[in-house]
Amino acid sequence: MHVHTGDNAVPPVTGTELGDVLEDLEGVHAGIDLIRDGLRLLALDRHDLNTTQVLLATLAGSPDGTDVLGAVGQLVARLANADTNPCLRALPLDRQESSRKHGWTASYELLDPDLRDSASNANAALDQ
What is the Cα gyration radius of the chain? Predict the structure, then answer.
């Protein structure tokens, strides 16, 4: 999709898929609101080529999972584990174990290097 704006301005996110997701996440938790604000700032800021490449790698383009996507995966595992989220300790042990297992699986899948190929390839395309 090509959006052309007057004076080569950065187009708004309102009315886009990104804008819709950011709107849907409003009010879940103060931490999510901070993430939303950060994503909106990244989307609306004017970037140069170098910054764009750094952002692509930092968001989801690191093959070893040291990016925002990897951090989200690690947080999912942490929140789903009774050892690191005390509110889960009141649950029966089988539910704690199931939550921990599914949280770990989600984290593992979010850390999959294949998941980063497209962001990494977009970054590399800018370098050519």
Answer: 18
